[in-house]
Amino acid sequence: MNIEKMIEKYQIKLAPDGISLAIPGGAKLPKEAIEEIKFVKSEIVKFFKDKKANEEKKYQERETKINTIPGLKELKESIINKGAYSAAMNEMMEDEQNDGVRSPAKTAGKTPAELAKEFPVAALWLKADDHCNSNNVHKFSSGEKAKNLILEDKIEEAKEVLKNWLPESSKWD
Question: Model-level pTM?
Answer without folding.
Answer: 0.76
